[in-house]
């Protein structure tokens, strides 16, 4: 019994030591951004979402119908320079086909996409991706509507969407 107590005391001591040494990260507390001056500097972040679509054969004469599923993921890498009041970034779209006729659906999609710059294909797993620069833009006071900043001033976020279960998705940018 003494050995079990000793091990328990040692475990608690190790836990307390690690908490004091490394700390515990506090969850972010968010408040509305009210001025561009709160956002001075460069911020970088990303956001991505996926969508799966069934390409079931409805009509044998429709060449665009396949017994396959197409899953597309779109990711954004964004830089906002609030000092210069500019935005820039890239968008990457990745698509993968699965199912009985994945090869046929993939072949048709590749024919339509192959001429685009930044197009990379993977014939082994019936997938492709394409990265494109986003059009550079400018930012002003009106663009901060809906933005929130955390308690340390090192992260900002913007609401993107809410799913059927009420889970909210945000794009989060970190100060550089």
Q: Mean pLDDT, rounded to whole units?
A: 78
Rg over CA atoms? 24 Å
Secondary-structure class: alpha+beta
The domain count comes to 1
Count of β-strands: 9
pLDDT < 50 runs, ≥5 residues: 13-17
| Distance between the amino and carboxyl termini | 54 Å
* Oligomer description: single chain
* Pattern of helices and strands: HEEEEHEEEEE
- Individual helix count: 2
Strand order of the largest sheet: 1-7-8-9-2-3-4-6-5
Largest sheet: 9 strands, antiparallel
Strand content: 35-45%
Categorize the overall geometry.
elongated
Q: What share of the residues lie within helices? A: 10-25%
Describe this structure in words.
The chain is of the alpha+beta class. It has one domain. The protein has helices at residues 2-22, 102-113, and strands at 30-32, 42-54, 69-81, 86-98, 119-122, 127-138, 147-150, 155-162, 168-175. A nine-stranded antiparallel beta sheet has the order 1-7-8-9-2-3-4-6-5. A hairpin with a 4-residue loop joins strand 3 (69-81) and strand 4. It starts with a helix and ends with a strand. The model is unreliable at 13-17 (pLDDT under 50).
